[in-house]
Amino acid sequence: MESFERRKTDDHLTEDAWSNSLRGTIIPDKGWSQHYDLAKEMGDCHASVGDYTRARQCYDKAAELAPDEAGPYVGLGVIHLQIGELDDAETAFRVACRLEPKSSKALCGLAMSAQRRGQDQQAFDGYLKTLEIDPDEMTALLGLFQVSCRMGSFGQIIRYLELYLEMHPGDLSVMFSLAALYRRDGRLERTRELLERIVLLEPEHADARNLLEEIEHSMVESMDRRTTCLNPMR
Fold first, then answer.
1. What's the CATH code of the domain at 85?
2. Is residue 225 part of a domain?
3. Contact, 209 vs 215, CB < 8 A?
4. Suppose 133 and one of 91, 104, 118, 123 were both cysteines; which one would form an S-S bond, judging by CB atoms 3.0 to 4.6 Å apart?
5. What is the structure's pLDDT at 228?
């Protein structure tokens, strides 16, 4: 489970040569009327490298150019969330939700804000709404996993991990987390099947090998107990 919990996710563009080239870019005062997409993308790039001042400038400009678009407010919400301004983050995400009620990123942002506040049930519900719209939203999947672990409620997260694996059958970290949840749920045969798949795909996966050994030992012990019950005189 730890490998999935520690997995890093980011809704913004990763730092690459292009984002590095934007570090020193100054937003021009004129000529932006046709460049909402560029302003939004520059905001994402600046945010991805931690340059929140320029990122805010870009998102503000994007919101000015396209006031009905949710994207800039999602970006602003993420910045506020990163620096711990939860009230401002929630406000930005709510504006984004009003502009685009089915924005998975805005709904996920609200759920993240609730999780930061320790409002696990509200976060749980928000992540579920997000995944109903976009089952591929890894940030929501991770958040739901974390909240589920704290609440001790695993039925929903198992379902969405299964859906995610249908779309990403080679994701070993998610596969291992699902195997661990199956084990917790007492579904040992299903656990063994997943662990065998992991070991087949990555023979050096030590955690999977160790858990598979434990599962097989438990299954042998369970079979021995059943045999003893059926044949008490043996």
1. 1.25.40.10
2. no
3. no
4. 104
5. 57
Residue type, 146: Q
Predicted confidence (pLDDT) per residue in 198-221, tens digit: 999 999 999 999 999 999 988 887
Provide the 8-state DSSP code for 30: S
CA distance to 55, 83, 98, 222, per residue, from 135 (Å): 28, 27, 21, 36
- CB-CB contact of 130 with 140 (8 Å): yes
Q: What is the pLDDT of residues 89-119, one digit of tens each?
A: 999 999 999 999 999 999 999 999 999 999 9
Amino acid at 73: Y
In a domain, 157, yes or no: no
- Calculated CA dihedral for residues 163, 166, 172, 173, nearest 10 degrees: -10
Could you identify the residue written with the tokens 């609440």? 151
Share of residues in the chain with pLDDT > 70 (%): 80
Domain hosting residue 49, numbered range: 2-118
Each residue of 21-46: pLDDT tens digit?
444 455 555 454 468 999 999 999 99
For residue range 55-96, list pLDDT tens digits in order: 999 999 999 999 999 999 999 999 999 999 999 999 999 999
54 in any annotated domain: yes
Cα 117–Cα 120–Cα 126 angle in degrees, nearest 5? 95
Flag whether 205 is in a domain: no
User: What HEC string does 132-198 produce?
Assistant: HHCCCCHHHHHHHHHHHHHHCCCHHHHHHHHHHHHHCCCCHHHHHHHHHHHHHCCCHHHHHHHHHHH
Dist CA 45 CA 6 (whole Å): 23
Structural domain total, the chain = 1
